[in-house]
C-alpha cells in the first residue's frame, strides 16, 4: 500500500508540472571549435515532463509489407526492400499516443540523426503552400532515415523526395550526420525546403524558428533545396531581403518572438559571452564561440536557465502573469542528447550518443556507442504511467522533486550528478581507445564491448537515481511536519565526503 501511495503522489506531481508543448532547442558545434576536435550535434526534446521515452534497438522493421504507415495521420510510404539496423529513443506510448517519434539514434552504417526542432512558417506562406495533413512529420523522420539511408547527403535527398511527392505535415529543422559531414535541413512550408552542409568552424543555437538566411543556391556541393524555394514566394510578392540578399528566414518565417529570442539571446551569450549581444540583436544562425566548446559545456547549456542574468528563469519576477521567460533548461524536457562524432572512430561507428532521460537540470548523460546490441531492460521498458521499472520515470521523478525547491532539494543533487558526469567523461576517453582498438581487430568484439558498457553503467546509474528518488521523497514528505534545517544531501555524497 505504501509504495502504491508513493507512485500515485509522484504521478500527480509530474503531471501537474508537465506542459504538453511541442518545442525543442538544438545546438551544433563544428569540429574546429570543439575542445577535443569532435563534431557535436545536440537537442533537448521539450515535449513534456510526463512524456516517457525508451531506448530501443531495432533489429527488424516495425511495419509490414515494406509499407510504413503513420497510424495517427494516415501518411504512407513504400519502403525499400532493405532494412538497416538502428537504435533510437522513441516515445514509450508510440501509436497509442501521437506516433513513434524515434527522435535520435545511430544506424549500422554510422548514420545519426537528431529530428526535430519544430518550426513554423508565415500564414501568408501557408496560404499558398499549405502544410499537408497526411504529409511527412516529425514522428516519422528518424525511423524512415535510419532504417533506409547510409549517409547524411543521401538522407537529405531522401527526405527532399518525400516532401516533393507527399508534402510536409509540419515545418521542421533536422540535423543528420555521418563520419564525414553534417547537414542541416529546414522544411519551410508544405513543399519547400532548404538544406546546407554545416561548416566546421562555427556553432549554432536553434530554437523553434527557421534560421537560414541567405545561402548560395548555385553551390550544389553544399546546398540542396526545393525547385520553387524562390519562385513560389516571388510569384506571390512575398520575397524578403536581408542586406540586399534573398533571405529564406525573413521570406518564410515571422519575426522572432520572445519564445525563441530568449533562447537565442541566452545560448549565444552562454557560448560567446564576450560579444555581449543585446536582447534585440538581429541574431544569425552561425557564430563563433569565445573558447573551444566541450561536451560538458553543451550539457550545461541544455540545463541553462539564464542564472546570474536579468532573465534568470528561477526568479519569480520573470514568471508572472502575462510574462514568462523561456529558458533552454526547461522542466518539460523528455530527453536531452548530444551526438559526438569523433575523428578517430571508424566510419560505421563514428562516435557516441550522450543521452539524458528526463530533463537535464538534475540528471546525468550516459554514453552509448553506435553499434550496441541491447540496453538494460529498464531503459527499453515502456510504461504509460510512473513505474519504477522504467529508467525514464526514475530519472524524471528524482528531478521533479529536486525542482520543487532548487536550492534546498536540488542544489546538492545537481552537484552530485555533475561530479559523476565529470568522472564518466574522463573514463570514456579510455573506453573510446579500447573500443577503437577492438574495432580494428574484430567488429563483433567491439559491438560486444559497446553493449557491455552501456548495460553496466546503465544499471549502475539507474540504481543511483532510484536511491536519490527514494531518499528525497522521504525528505520532501517529512517537510509537511517539521521542515528540515539542512539541505538534502544524497547519502552517497555524505559517505564520500567523510
UniProtKB/TrEMBL annotation:
It comes from the Bacteria. Keywords: Dipeptidase, Hydrolase, Protease. The keyword Protease applies. It is an enzyme of class 3 (hydrolase). NCBIfam families: C69_fam_dipept. Belongs to the peptidase C69 family. This is Dipeptidase. It comes from Peptoniphilus stercorisuis.
